[in-house]
Write a structure and sequence with these properties.
About 15% of the residues lie in helices and about 20% in strands. The chain has about 200 residues and is α+β, with helices and mostly antiparallel strands. It has two domains: about 70 residues, PSTPO5379-like (3-Layer(aba) Sandwich), CATH 3.40.1640; about 110 residues, 2-Layer Sandwich (PSTPO5379-like fold), CATH 3.30.2040.10. The mean pLDDT is about 95. The longest helix is centred in the last third of the chain and has 9 residues. Strand 2 and strand 3 form a beta hairpin. The chain contains four helices and ten strands. The strands form three sheets. Strands 5, 6, 7, 8 and 9 form a five-stranded antiparallel sheet that branches. A three-stranded antiparallel sheet has the order 3-2-10, with helices on one face.
Amino acid sequence: MLDVTEPGAVSASIFGGDLRTDLPAYRVYEYGEPVAEVTDVVFSWRDDLVCFLIGCSFTFEAALLDAGVPVRHIAAGTNVPMYRTDRACRPAGELSGPMVVSMPPIPADLVATAVRVTSRYPAVHGAPVHVGDPRSLGIADLDRPDFGDPVEVRPGEIPVFWACGVTSQAAVIQSRPPFAIAHAPGSMAITDVRDSSYLIP
């Protein structure tokens, strides 16, 4: 969790814009069902809404590239594939749901580098939660992500899985609150904080 707003606030300490209009796309949920995907939520906004800004693995992608680790969905011009797992998150009040993971395939000889680079960004998901067989996470088919777009896993590459901020939407889907707004997967808020601010020595 990077930031939490006061009820009704439309900006945050790390986001100086308008959280109702400045994301690329939003997904609106009613009782856990997505009912709209829109480019602003001004008309859906209520003064009792609280915004949670959650870290994203996109934050460390430049560091991966700088370390020579390819990021397949960037090269392909697609969204990262995201999968619901069979791992239940710890409930928070009435909210509960499964962990969602993102998966860029990594050349086997660069997996250790990817782990080393991303572990230095613990506030934005940090090191992978799993390396290797997706069935260990309850993922049956990498070609059918629950969110985002599939990517090719080439010979000599290993699926590597990071925790994903879409986990919060999986909790909304499972817990079915009357109303919620989220970013559309892959359409996150871009904050006023530089990626390097989340890097630890």
